[in-house]
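debug: dumping io for the single-chain case to check the tokenizer round-trip. Nothing else runs in this session.
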Amino acid sequence: MASLNADSCPTDGKKLILPYSTLKEFYLEYVAFCTGENLSVNTYAMRETFRLAWKSLETNYKLIGAKGSFPTCDICNNANDLLRDTRIKDQSHREIIFKFKRLHLFQQMEERQYLERNRMTARNSYYLGQPTQAFFLIDAMTHARGNTPQVGAKFNQSKNETSAVISNRVIGCEVVCGPVDEIFYYNTDNLVSSGANIMCQVVLAVIEDLSRRLARYGKMLPRILFAQFDNCGENKNKYMFGMFSHLIEEHFFDEIHCNFLLVGMFILANIEQILFMNLQRNPKFIT
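debug: decoded output
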């Protein structure tokens, strides 16, 4: 079960990560798997036996831990819902779901490994003493998370009560380029609206600040940039792409790679239809 569901993490290569926050969740997945395989109930491992077996694997595997406020992947959630449906007895159906889920996890792993390769290349690649590329990973908090006091259930603010909260939005950027390996922080207030304009301005500020940092080491800004974002509309829009195109046209960079990690977008009702349509068109889809 661990080998079927585990995934690697670029920042912790020694251990494989399981997509469960608690051992109880992992055990329920195990029970659903055994039920789907039509195994006899008396062959299931009890919880204590399962816990002891897990203890023997803790040097190679670990649970994902707390999920916080981030939603889990829709594809994984929908596949898990189908696999845990004990009404499904057709083993060929379950095998298709398993293969699709493993294919999806493998694609996610490849994307994260690609991100890590870009980061390592930006740190270690030089030509004639100059770094050859830069790596940016930019993310931002929402205004509500940075407000002081933080807006919550106990703090009811009307639209007209703008002075009751000090607005503070933090935007962080991991920057790797040769000798520079830092996290830049930028703060905005309620006078600055969110959207494509602010993120474009942050990217330009990161480029300027990186150029100043490199100058301290006697280095110049490299000609290749890898920018990593999440999939929110502030980052993935025509204005961001237009700005990157303009930076190339003005010869600030020769190449700019704008990257986004995968997002699960399938809904539960359509997974089976999509799987079987692809299987009919291309039998090698799940191999």
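debug: round-trip ok. The beta strands are 7-9, 12-18, 61-63, 126-127, 130-131, 133-140, 169-177, 180-188, 224-229, 255-260.
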